Every structure is written in structure tokens, then in C-alpha cells.
């Protein structure tokens, strides 16, 4: 399936979570067997270029795509978790979202110092969560230079923010404010 066909599977929900927002819901893409498989194929093709030894996925939907890609590449998967989800001492980072505060945590033993890690999530918007994830992975000793997303809401500037942090980002599809 080509990117236009995949994009057509993504459901758009107007005015969620607040008026004026067009929410891009990937639930329909995950539920579509051929579409989901084609999305993973496209992500794997791009991920191979990153030459990473692990994939880090942001909770929760980044787990779905990141773990599938890591398994296909035969490399490890590192979950970046919401607070209080790991039963051990963690390192974490607090960051701002457009609608409040958030935190990501990581098992610091999940990454070897100097390890090349590819960051993955379902959607790139303002880049706040992705940049926080990059900072957290780097604090753990990882080299992070590439990030992959299923969707990029390019007008929100997340890609530019990642580039400023030294990270190249790619997405399978882009949505504007249509």
C-alpha cells in the first residue's frame, strides 16, 4: 500500500481533545491488517538506514510500532514509560505539553553507553515529547540521531525542533490542517 492509501485509513476526529484540533486517530490503521503491515514495512525500510542497535518507543502507541520494527530488525526494544510503571530505580525527564506537564522514565540499564538508538512514536506534533525522549536517552548514554514516526503534523514544527537537537526525523505520512 502506498502512503496515500495508508493516509486514507487514518481516521480524523474534529474538535478532539478540544475545539479546533483535528485529531489523527491511528486506531483504524492498527486495526487494518494490510495497512498495519504496510506501515511496519515502510518503517522498517527507513529504520535500516539508521543503523541502530535498539529502538526506543514512547508510551503508548510508540510501543506498538517500535516493538514491531525492532522485532523485524532483530534488535532490542527500549520502552520509554510514563511515571511509576517500572518496578526499579529509573531516570526520568519532566517536560511541558501544550495542555500540561508530563514525564518519561527509563530503566538506565536498558541502554549501553554509546549505543545507537532509533526513537519511534506514532505521531510528531510540536516535538516536545520527542525532544524530551531524545534528552532522556542521551542522559542514559545513547547516541540518538534518527527518529521515525507514522504521522508528522508538519505545520506544528516538531521536525524543526528535532533537527535543532541534532536528530533527523522521517514519517510515513504528513498531515496539514486539512
From TrEMBL:
Q: One Pfam family name from the record?
A: Pribosyltran
State whether keyword Metal-binding applies.
no
Copy the pathway line from the protein's UniProt record: Purine metabolism; AMP biosynthesis via salvage pathway; AMP from adenine: step 1/1
Localization (cell): Cytoplasm
Gene3D superfamilies named in the record: 3.40.50.2020
Phosphoribosyltransferase domain span: 35-150
| Annotated EC | 2.4.2.7
Could you state one GO biological process linked to this protein?
adenine salvage
Which reaction(s) does the protein catalyse, per the Swiss-Prot or TrEMBL entry? AMP + diphosphate = 5-phospho-alpha-D-ribose 1-diphosphate + adenine
InterPro entries tied to this protein: Ade_phspho_trans, PRTase-like, PRTase_dom, UPRTase/APRTase
Per the record's keyword annotation, is Transferase included, yes or no? yes
Q: What is its main location?
A: cytoplasm
Which keywords does this Swiss-Prot/TrEMBL entry list? Cytoplasm, Glycosyltransferase, Purine salvage, Transferase
Q: Name one GO molecular function term.
A: adenine binding
Which Gene Ontology terms of cellular component type are present?
cytoplasm
Protein family? Belongs to the purine/pyrimidine phosphoribosyltransferase family.
Q: How does it assemble?
A: Homodimer.
PANTHER family (alphabetical): ADENINE PHOSPHORIBOSYLTRANSFERASE
NCBIfam families the UniProt entry points to: apt, PRK02304.1-3, PRK02304.1-5
Q: What's this chain's function?
A: Catalyzes a salvage reaction resulting in the formation of AMP, that is energically less costly than de novo synthesis.
Q: What is this protein called?
A: Adenine phosphoribosyltransferase
Q: List the source organism.
A: Altericroceibacterium spongiae
The gene behind this protein is apt
Amino acid at each position: 500500500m502506498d502512503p496515500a492509501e495508508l493516509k486514507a485509513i487514518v481516521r480524523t476526529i474534529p474538535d478532539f481533545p478540544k475545539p479546533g484540533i483535528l485529531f489523527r486517530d491511528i486506531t483504524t490503521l492498527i486495526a487494518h491488517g494490510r495497512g498495519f503491515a504496510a506501515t511496519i514495512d515502510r518503517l522498517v525500510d527507513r529504520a535500516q538506514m539508521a543503523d541502530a542497535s535498539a529502538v526506543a518507543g514512547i508510551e503508548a502507541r510508540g510501543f506498538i510500532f517500535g516493538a514491531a520494527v525492532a522485532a523485524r530488525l532483530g534488535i532490542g526494544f527500549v520502552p520509554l514509560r510514563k511515571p511509576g510503571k517500572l518496578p526499579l530505580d529509573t531516570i526520568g525527564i519532566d517536560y511541558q505539553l501544550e495542555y500540561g506537564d508530563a514525564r518519561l522514565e527509563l530503566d538506565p540499564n536498558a541502554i549501553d553507553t554509546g549505543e545507537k538508538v532509533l526513537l519511534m512514536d506514532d505521531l510528531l506534533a510540536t516535538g516536545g515529547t520527542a525532544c524530551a525522549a531524545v534528552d532522556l536517552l542521551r542522559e542514559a548514554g545513547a547516541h540518538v540521531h534518527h527518529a521515525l514516526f507514522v504521522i508528522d503534523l508538519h505545520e506544528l514544527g516538531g521536525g524543526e525542533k528535532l533537527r535543532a537537537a541534532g536528530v533527523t526525523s522521517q514519517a510515513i505520512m504528513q498531515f496539514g490542517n486539512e
